[in-house]
Design a protein that fits this description.
By secondary structure, this protein is α+β, with helices and mostly antiparallel strands. It is built from 25 helices and 23 strands. A hairpin with a 7-residue loop joins strand 17 and strand 18. The two termini are about 20 Å apart. The C terminus is likely disordered.
């Protein structure tokens, strides 16, 4: 299809406009338009690219939302090794580092560039002709993993460099990907709701997120980045300060908290300043990085082993405080998980008053031999969540009895069970009030059925008044409008809005419905896999264990959980009720038009396609009668190679498998058109 010139112009205008607003919001923290206006312009761009798919490129702003499903992460070689820093916690060792720099450079004074040491994950991002080309992890320093699809979703990283910086044909920037404390707390809250293991700290959650196979989930986790290194040279760059200023002019986010220091005393003062102020930041830092400022001096000293000789990490010590364990309480999650919580004598730690800390499970309490009345150490070094780390046995009260885990649910009194191989105790009463509220909250949450106006407080009122006892009851509320309007603070307009939102939720896609059911271990990515495989609630409900485990990414724990859910009379009844109420229960089957080149053959996708996301390419192949596999083997018939194709391409060549590029791929897809016209 020929794209009219005015469409080309409109697409370019919207693209540049949205990239600029990404820069204003995520890099400068100075938005120029409202979120509503930004979303409107994004929808306009999405509509254009839907109508004219050839306009869509991997670096379009629309690709920030993700959607690529990656079965593996090709290994890439770093042209310049990504070194790690030697580190110290001692001021004397920093002064010794300075003495060595002065001696080896043969000078009386040395200038340093001092930066915050971000507690994140190292990243290398490469650009060609100003366009995002590839992103990779550090790996072992010589080789890393290609995580380009996931990094495209990080809105602070430019997809196109700012033209006024006159970037060279090739440019590589290195930095740190991190998760802000607020986003980390929100993520862990969601994981707790879903009965999933909590991340220990933002760094762990960032590392795990960057290696997710589904980039649409990465996009929802709001990762951030700051760049701290330019590989190669740029115009008039003689110092580290120059390099960061240049990266900033290209549109990269650069941390503002940095300083050029002419004396080692100033370096130490900077470290002391941020040791005191680190809790005021919205993200975690674990020290400062001290670098020679002059690039010529960096080059002169070079590196040893895997560390540069011209830089050192001056780290902070973990924050620890002593307090008293006053009590141990128990919380019941929506999946019935019973979690012990330490009630502490309030103590100021890392800028906040701590009065509670999770104790994880029975094994954790037993390993520390925790007892009520103990004097304990709590720590928050690099962690947002405070944790109990030690017991001061010498301070233990005489005749202190060992702690025993409760045997019955604190909410409903049901006997608790601890399944074999699990570390947690569970309440299996599906009518337990804590679980009922939790399941309804999860069902209505933004990433599930997205029922606006149905928050925790509203759910508490509806449950307390006996209007709902399960998420299936939500779809009966329309018949109880009068009872709703009689509730305090439930006016006719708010009731109308709530009922309308409940009605709209019936059309949510199948993957969201599966996620909303609250099946143990079934989060967003697994829900999508199940929806694509079984295509209906009925299909999923009747699936056997072997059918479930044949799906790549689903193991015995998830398969058994799905089976338990759909064989349980109570939960199966809830599913039947929401389906009968009109909630989406099946995916529409794609219109298939088999094409000889694809029919019955197995394809592998590698690299980046300019006109299609990997998910869209997969859909086209399957609609034409083919299958898509995640890795190359002797059973592979064709490999479709896009830009920056990696190890899969090499393996295909070794095995003598047919390889086609993107143009050939589109040519074969259009075979049915030529066949019709001939």
């Amino acid at each position: 299809m020929t794209v009219p010139p005015h469409i080309h112009e409109r697409h370019q205008q919207l693209t540049e406009d949205l990239l600029q607003h990404d820069y204003q919001y995520y890099v400068l923290a100075d938005p120029l338009i409202s979120d509503e206006e930004y979303d409107r312009r994004m929808r306009d761009l999405q509509d254009l690219e839907e109508a004219y798919p050839e306009l869509r490129t991997p670096n379009s702003p629309t690709q920030r939302v993700g959607g690529t499903v990656t079965k593996d992460f090709p290994t890439v070689r770093h042209d310049v090794p990504m070194l790690s820093l030697s580190n110290t916690y001692a001021e004397d060792e920093v002064r010794e580092f300075h003495r060595r720099m002065v001696q080896e450079l043969g000078t009386e004074s040395v200038e340093y560039h001092v930066e915050l040491k971000l507690d994140g994950v190292a990243l290398a991002v490469r650009y060609r002709n100003g366009e995002f080309e590839r992103a990779a992890t550090r790996g072992d320093g010589m080789h890393g993993d290609d995580i380009s699809a996931n990094v495209r979703t990080i809105r602070s990283i430019p997809l196109k460099l700012r033209s006024e910086a006159s970037p060279p044909p090739e440019l590589e920037a290195r930095g740190e990907v991190l998760m802000f404390k607020e986003d980390f707390a929100h993520l862990n809250s969601m994981r707790e709701e879903q009965g999933e293991k909590l991340f220990a700290n933002p760094r762990n959650s960032t590392a795990g997120t960057l290696k997710l196979q589904d980039s649409s989930i990465v996009a929802q986790r709001n990762l951030r980045a700051y760049m701290y290194s330019l590989v190669g040279s740029g115009p008039d760059i003689e110092t580290q300060a120059d390099a960061l200023a240049y990266l900033q002019s290209c549109g990269f986010p650069v941390n503002p908290h940095r300083r050029v220091c002419e004396r080692i005393d100033d370096v130490i003062a900077f470290w002391q300043e941020w040791d005191e102020k680190r809790d005021s930041l919205p993200y975690e830092i674990d020290g400062v990085v001290v670098k020679l400022n002059k690039l010529s001096e960096q080059n002169e000293l070079g590196s040893i082993a895997r560390s540069p000789r011209w830089a050192i990490a001056f780290k902070f010590r973990a924050r620890r405080e002593q307090t008293v364990l006053k009590d141990i309480l128990f919380q019941v999650g929506r999946m019935g998980t019973v979690t012990p919580v330490a009630v502490l004598e309030p103590v100021l730690l890392a800028g906040s008053t701590i009065s509670r800390a999770t104790l994880h499970n029975e094994d954790f309490i037993r390993d520390l031999d925790l007892r009520v009345g103990d004097t304990v150490m709590i720590e928050k070094g690099g962690d947002v969540i405070p944790k109990v780390t030690d017991v001061l046995l010498e301070a233990r009260p005489a005749n202190s009895p060992p702690f025993s885990f409760i045997s019955h649910c604190p909410e409903c009194g049901t006997a608790l069970v601890r399944p074999e191989g699990e570390s947690a105790w569970f309440c299996e009463n599906v009518e337990c009030p804590a679980q009922v509220r939790g399941r309804i909250e999860h069902f209505a949450s933004r990433n599930a059925m997205d029922i606006e106006g149905l928050g925790e407080a509203v759910i508490d009122v509806l449950v307390h008044e006996g209007l709902i006892q399960s998420y299936a009851d939500l779809y009966t509320l329309a018949s109880r409008r009068d009872a709703l309007e009689e509730l305090e603070r439930f006016g006719s307009r708010s009731v109308e809005n709530l009922l309308s939102s409940i009605e709209r939720s019936k059309t949510q896609p199948l993957e969201r419905v599966i996620h909303a059911l609250g099946i143990h271990y079934v989060g967003q990515s697994v829900s999508r896999l199940l929806a694509e495989e079984f295509r209906s609630i009925e299909g999923l409900a009747s699936a056997g264990r072997e059918e479930l485990m044949r799906i790549d990414g689903i193991g015995p724990r998830i398969a058994d959980s799905v089976l338990r859910f759909f064989t349980d009379h109570h939960t199966r009844s809830l599913v039947t009720r929401i389906v009968d109420a009109g909630v989406t229960h099946a995916m529409e089957d794609p219109t298939t038009e088999r094409i000889p080149f694809f029919d019955g053959r197995t394809f592998v996708l590698t690299g980046t396609l300019a006109s299609l996301s990997r998910e869209e390419a997969r859909a086209r192949i399957e609609a034409a009668g083919g299958k898509v596999a995640g890795s190359v083997s002797k059973k592979t018939d064709v490999v479709v190679a896009g830009a920056s194709a990696g190890s899969k391409l090499e393996k295909a060549r070794t095995l003598g498998i047919t390889i086609i590029d993107e143009d050939e791929f589109h040519s074969h897809l259009s075979e049915h058109i030529h066949g019709t016209n001939s």
